[in-house]
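so my prof wants the structure for this chain in the tokens format not the other one, which i didnt know existed until like an hour ago. anyway here's the sequence
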Amino acid sequence: MLSALIVVILGGVVGTIASTAARESLGRSMGRMGEQIPQLIKAITTVFAVILAASQLGIDTTVINIVVAAVVAGLALAFALIVGISVVWGISVVADSAQFSAIVSERADQRYVGTALTVQLALGFLLTIATIWLVPWLRDHHRWCAAFAFLAPCPLLGA
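here's what i got, hopefully its the right format
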């Protein structure tokens, strides 16, 4: 009984330390999600401590372990999917920039190729600056749905 109590207390301490470290490292960089991640870390460490304490008391935790493993595997799969999509998107975005520059340099009047490329790059940077400024504002004042809705037509404007 005492060992189970010690495990729960130590789990709470580890959860507090980990959530404080996450809060300090994230700061305000992630908005509302930055506030929720430390709470999630503390909840996860508390759940693991309670499961470990239950096993110390002789309670069969097989079903609980299976459920926790399924949840962790699902979260890991979701994270891997997000990272995979982000990598493919990042490679695609970088790759099409050279294509746009090549099209402009081939199709523009040869006397104005430099000007056309300058205008294209300036508009691209202007669109990027507007996006970087507006997406966090939309996220904070509305929701992520509004931020993503704003991002949807941006590739069309850049083309």
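also thought this was worth mentioning. Residues 43 and 123 are 46 Å apart (CA to CA).
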